Amino acid sequence: MLLRQSHSLLTRIRTVMVAPGGEALGGVIGAFCHMIRTEGFFSLYKGLVPSIVSMAPSGAVFYGVYDILKSAYLHSPEGKKRLQHMKDEGQGLNALEQLELGTIRTLLYGAIAGCCSEAATYPFEVVRRQLQMQARATRLNAMATCVKIVEQGGVPALYAGLIPSLLQVLPSAAISYLVYEFMKIVLKVEST
């Protein structure tokens, strides 16, 4: 989630750099200085509140959905059969074959978990972006910004741009779960 806030700050700096006259700012350092000089030091933290507020539900949904899907599969007849097969084969399996869900199912469940997490917390991202783009003279707080977005475009406006975001999150979440499960096996870490 800290990565998301860092990405948010870099996006803001990039926006300043490509704005008319932005190329004359002298790169990232120049953009930092320009933002501080024109909008104050705390302009570097625009959108921080929605980012922080979205951290808990994002993680809860991401890990919760994956665990629910994994548990449901492992308690199904097919999952029990796979676990029994893995137990019978023992050490004869390589690390990928030792994945409880198998490679494809791990990737699929990770992607589903990532999509659910992104969809659940996406309105916070929309509010954060709107806060970052506000001019100093018309600055609103996070709640007022959210209300303004809904008044202007309805609830669907809080999900504007969700599809491209999901397309970015989908492979990332899938691969992160595959690597996570794979490294648990390689490092011989037991899950509780």
Automatic annotation (TrEMBL):
Solcar repeats: 1-72, 101-186
Protein name: Mitochondrial adenine nucleotide transporter BTL3
Keyword Transmembrane among UniProt keywords: yes
Cellular localisation: Membrane
Topology term for the membrane: Multi-pass membrane protein
Matching Pfam families: Mito_carr
Alphabetical keyword list: Membrane, Repeat, Transmembrane, Transport
Main subcellular location: membrane
Top-rank lineage group of the source organism: Eukaryota
Keyword Repeat: yes
Family: Belongs to the mitochondrial carrier (TC 2.A.29) family.
